[in-house]
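re: ur question from yesterday

yeah so i grabbed the chain u mentioned. its 302 aa long if i counted rite. heres the sequnce exactly as i have it in my notes:
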Amino acid sequence: MFRIRKTVAAILISAAYLIFSSGDVWSAETDEPTMGDLDLDGSVTKSDAEIMLSYLQGKIEISDSAGKSGDLNSDKQLNAVDFTLLKRILLAQSTTHTDIKGEIHSGFATFYGGGYEGGCAMLDPISKDDYWITAMNLPDWDCARLAGAFLEVTGELGTIQVLVTDLLPEGAKGDLDLYVDAFPLIAPAEKGKVPVTWKIIPLDSAEDAPVSYVYKEGSSEFWCGVQVRNHRYPIEKFEYLDAKSGEFVSVERRNYNFFESKDMGAGPFTFRITDIYGSVIIDKNIPLTPDEMQIGHVQFPL
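ran it thru and got these structure tokens back, copy pasting raw so excuse formatting
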């Protein structure tokens, strides 16, 4: 077994050398790669740790883009501290519940006249010209876990795409409460309540734009509420990098779709965010601006 593992490791190292000794291979339009993604494939996996370890052992060279991606503590060096942080990212991924992409859910759909203003997801303002919206049942809402999710909903008359902006407290698992004008697109309005299926799909506005952040009113260095927006898939976990310990700290999510902490400080922040499928992004140098939305630098992979 030891010989087999050594052979596999040698193949991985050789492959990494071929990739990274041939020059800069970062091909994304942005200059900000996914932090921790040394092989530049859009996600953080075990292979990234293997590449970093081989580099630290002097076995391979890597491109500038890969080095930038691996510099997790932003000190412009790639060293053992970054390797430790990368291992923590992978550990967080392995202990996080992940959903299955494309999973089909079933339930019943009704309709109501709200959701564009004052929804429980607190995503105002939302334009009726941009999205149909829906309220989500309490079990699937799961303390705002599916707030801001983009769904494909299918009924007897067809399929529509909707944004989850509100909560349906009385609904059973799988149930949706669509905006009144959206309901007739999937079923006759006179039926009032109909069976539907739905699945989570990538948010269309995230295709060519990074995630963004909204701070809750009253946020300061002494208390801060952060909401993540324009995320390709729903958010599972939100963390910030503690400047003193050098470790990422998980932030509790409220049912109204804000992550709140008394310990984040004055910023600027480094955020680590995990989606429901286990993908991880790290966003650096995000200032604390309670009066305006902050545009980030990264986005979840497809």
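noticed a couple things. The chain has three domains: 2-94, 105-201, 208-295. also The CA atoms of residues 120 and 141 lie 10 Å apart.
anyway ttyl
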